Amino acid sequence: MQAIRRKLKDITNLWSMVKGLKVTGGQFLKPQVTVHYPRQEVANLASFRGPLQLVAKPKDPAKPKCIACLMCVSVCPSGCLTVLKAKPPKPTPEEEAAARAALEAGEKPAKKPAPKEPSRFIYDYSLCSLCGLCAENCPVGSLSYSENIYLTATDAKAFKLDLLADLRARAGAAPPAGEE
Ligand code: SF4
Ligand code: SF4
Prior knowledge:
Elements (H helix, E strand, L loop, with lengths): L1 H28 L22 E3 L1 E2 L2 E5 L6 H5 L5 E5 L7 H12 L13 E7 L8 H5 L5 E3 L14 E3 H9 L9
Antiparallel strand pairs: 1-6, 2-3, 4-5, 5-7
The structure holds iron/sulfur cluster (SF4) (2 copies).
One iron/sulfur cluster binds next to helix 2.
């Protein structure tokens, strides 16, 4: 009885091995999908989820579509994003004089609205799980995955990325005054 059981177990194991070899053999005959990096690089990265990047305005490649609504900051489960809203521009001497005159006349001085754009956009890639919630919830489509597949560093601080500077660099634009 014992010998028969052992025989049956051997047959089952052999059958499992044949099934495994069938799968392996099938894959062996298919065309190769991997490349021998660094001798070769992947040609099409369209579906690659690289670190996030800002999407530029169609008419100004150095400016993001971002309206600084902070939605991405609130939906990110890992606290990767820090976005600061731009402040209103400094009033000109004429505008300051007009505001003083309005105050003296007991009126409310007109204030310049702050532009709907970020002044800082920092992304900590070392915390990011690439879940995509920020990009999916952005109301203006200002976040996308980059094709930066070869981003490496030995220090986690190097993954704290300034996405506004990255956008300007991609557009070949100079940094704004005071940030050179
Ligand atoms: S992809 Fe996910 S984890 Fe990464 S910044 Fe966006 S919301 Fe946060
Ligand atoms: S990237 Fe989109 S969601 Fe995030 S602050 Fe800008 S507009 Fe809002």
